[in-house]
Amino acid sequence: MNKDFLLENFINGIPKAELHLHIEGTFEPELMFKIAKRNNISIKYSSVEELRNAYSFNNLQDFLNIYYAGANVLVTQEDFYDLTKAYLDKVHLQNVQHCEIFFDPQTHTSRGIGFGTIINGIHKALVEAKEQDGITSKLIMCFLRDLDSDSAMKTLEEAIPFKDWIMAVGLDSAEVGNPPSKFTEIFNHARNNGFITVAHAGEEGPADYIWEALDLLKVSRIDHGNNSLDDKKLVDELVRLKVPLTICPLSNYKLRVVKDLKNHPLKKMMNMGLVITINSDDPAYFGGYINENYCAIAEALELSKEDIYLIAKNSINASFLNDNEKELLYKKVDAYMELNK
Ligand code: ADE
Ligand code: ZN
Question: Which residues belong to the active site?
């Protein structure tokens, strides 16, 4: 049988965790049109096809403009539930055992949507997925870094009553010109309230932003982190501290962080000893969910079964599950590897 086909099957079946996924980035055009109609909101594009054709980006900001416009049709708790359920149903079929999901409350609260409306809708779908499919999950609330820190603080205060449902806080949106240092005080306050921290850093921004995320925001993972490779001392530090990077291959390609997936540094990063995971970021916009990301990068860089096995294990190790939960998932991955040697 064809070698690529065999590896694709292996990837599809391996138990895995997804750690870098924006729920607003899973908004497929079909669902967007359905919800827009339900809410009596008009969309700038006349059809699903026309909207999909607009998904061509020169950089992160190009993408963010369309991504925020799409999110504008989300209004009710049911909308957030439907969005989350659609993602979970999809990745259940991709053998995702556990996911850690970003959500961007400011995108919605700035339009007058209540924080409770957003999180109740998302949470309901997460609870159901655990009951029905056994998928476990954590929520990560992101601050939009292009907004000011007062807005972030207000959002953090709104989140505190829902602390039991939110594992961590993160930082996303337009990176360049909005360094992690802008949010030092917010992240201190978040950690004092028991939140773990992560941050997007080094996607378009410099290696210095990754240093700031580590030193000032005390992050447990770096989201993206591609530009760490510009700074040898930083790579040594990430290796020494075993800070996982949540890499998103198709996102990097679509947002022109890399010109070609064949030039993607993922394998080089693994060889340097960095803890690498593979994720989809905003799958509805970038042409693939988690398995398509694994397959695309595996093909481009000629990854082996052992590479895939290591990355799947990293995804569990880098998650915010407790040790017992991790142990159960390691066993599943090991059993799968044993069966598919
Ligand atoms: N929000 C959604 N996707 C993002 C990305 N790739 N980078 C920064 N912010 C984002
Ligand atoms: Zn992201």
Answer: 203
